[in-house]
Structure formats: structure tokens, C-alpha cells
Amino acid sequence: MPVQNHRRVRFQLGTILISMLLPCGSVAVGQTSSPARQFKFDPKIDVSAGFMGEMTLSRNEVGDFVLLPPPGFSRYFLKSQSSSNSVGGLSTLHVGLKPYLGFNVNFSYSQFKQDFSFYGGTIDHGTAAGYGDVGSLNTRMYEFTASYVFEGPRIRRFRTFGQFGGGGLLFQPISAYFAKEETRPAMVFGAGTEFPISPHFSIRAEYRGLLYKGPNYQTFASGSYPQQRLLTLTSLPAISFVYNFKSPSYWKKTSKRQWGPY
């Protein structure tokens, strides 16, 4: 009997000790297993307006050199095309339906100076005979493009994205009676990031590139201006102020006049 009582006391003590340890273990497990808070994607519609820089890659000495019979006779030509750097305006309508499904509608305006040159001729046993032409004009460029947009990785509150698409460019000469307006198809591509500063406003920084064949302004009848369409790359870095029609879910109201992320 004393042995049975002793075993019974030890069993009761063990049961009490286990019942005391279980709550502590559940608290510890609850503290260590809670996942870190993550941003989730929110469908959004926003509009933006801002400033962009415009830098066009110059095309210099794009030409050909051909040896022709008889020996010692050859023909050559050289082309160049460049545009001055400028500043313009950019406005965008963005709709994001899913992280991998969204689109932008872009409109931009800029004004710059374009320079063209063309040189050609022949070389006959060391004697060169050539011809050439140069020209420049001020022009306005209007961009109308639409692009597919996909979300990139999110770094804290920075949202990243990429885009590619196409559209058209309208080139409008300024005070040039011999040149006409011309439209050119273009491809647009780029990437950027966006940082929210309030539930409905954010700042967007992005790089966009336009790839197209430069205009010749339909100057075929003038006979005094280079007539060429060289493949051109224009870089358009931009900073825009964005208005979001719906505030993201990671913003909450902390007081009457204070907002902050979770």
C-alpha cells in the first residue's frame, strides 16, 4: 500500500507539471510560427503626370563602300542622323488587374532639333568626286503608345514593374515650309519603381525607350534635304506624380490625421 500511494503521488505531480508547461509551449510556438507580414497585390487604377528627359542615340557614318569594275574604281556613301537632348511631358493611365496582367496608355510631348547629313561619291584611281547635303530643323514629337505591364519584386514599400508595347509617333516640323508632318510606328519598352507617400498619392520613377525609324518629313520633292529613315533609339527617363483612385490595402488609418503602413 505505501508503494502504491507513493506511485500515485508521483503520477499526480507529473500531471500537474505537464499541465503547467503546456500553455508556455503553446505561447512559444505561437510566437515563433507567426509568418512575417507581406504586401499583397491590389488591383489598381491610377493616372500620372510628370517630366521626362529625351536623349536620342546618334547615328553617325552609316554607309557603304563598294568596289566596282574596272579596277581602281569605287563608290561610297555616308549617312548621319542626330537629335538634340530635350525635356518633355509625360502622362499615363495605368490599370493593374493582376500581378502579371496590366496595361499603360501613354501620351508624351517634346520639342527638339534634328540634324541630317548625306555624302556620296566615287573614287577613280585616287581621284574623288562626290556630292552631299546637310539639313536641320526644329520639330515637335507626340507619342501615343499602349503597353503591357507586369509587376516585379516588391522591396519594402517600393513597387517595381516592367512594360513593353507599341504605338505611333507624330513628328510635326516647326516653320519648315518644305517638310510635312509624318507618323512613324514605334516600339516602347522600359522598367521602373513606385513609392507611395499617402493612401492615394505616390511618386514613380521609370525608364522608357522608343525604337523607331526616323522621319524624312516627306521631302522627296524638295531635292535639298536628306531623304533617309534610319533606325533610332530614344531614351526617356521620367519622374511622375501619381494619383491612385483606390488606396492600397497596406495603408491603415492610425488616427484622425495620421496614416501609415501596417
Molecular structure report:
There is one protein chain. The protein has 262 residues and is mainly β. The protein has two domains: 1-32; 44-248, Porin (Beta Barrel), CATH 2.40.160. Helices cover 12% and strands 61% of the residues. The chain has one helix and twelve strands. The strands form two sheets. An eight-stranded antiparallel β-barrel has the order 1-4-5-6-7-8-9-10. Strands 11-12 form a two-stranded antiparallel sheet. A hairpin with a 2-residue loop joins β4 and β5 (101-124). The longest helix is centred in the first third of the chain and has 32 residues, at 2-33. Mean pLDDT is 76; it is low at 21-37 and 253-262.
Features:
262 residues, mainly beta, eight-stranded antiparallel beta barrel, two-stranded antiparallel sheet, 1 helix, elongated
Q: What is the radius of gyration?
A: 33 Å
Measure the end-to-end span: 63 Å
Q: What order do the helices and strands follow?
A: HEEEEEEEEEEEE
Q: Please state the second-level CATH architecture of the largest domain.
A: Beta Barrel
**Unreliable parts:** 21-37, 253-262
| Count of strand segments | 12
**Number of DSSP helical runs:** 1
Proportion of residues in helical segments: 10-25%
Give the topology, please:
Blueprint: H1 2-33, E1 44-56, E2 59-68, E3 73-83, E4 86-98, E5 101-124, E6 127-151, E7 159-173, E8 182-196, E9 201-213, E10 231-244, E11 251-253, E12 259-261
Antiparallel strand pairs: 1-4, 1-10, 2-3, 3-5, 4-5, 5-6, 6-7, 7-8, 8-9, 9-10, 11-12
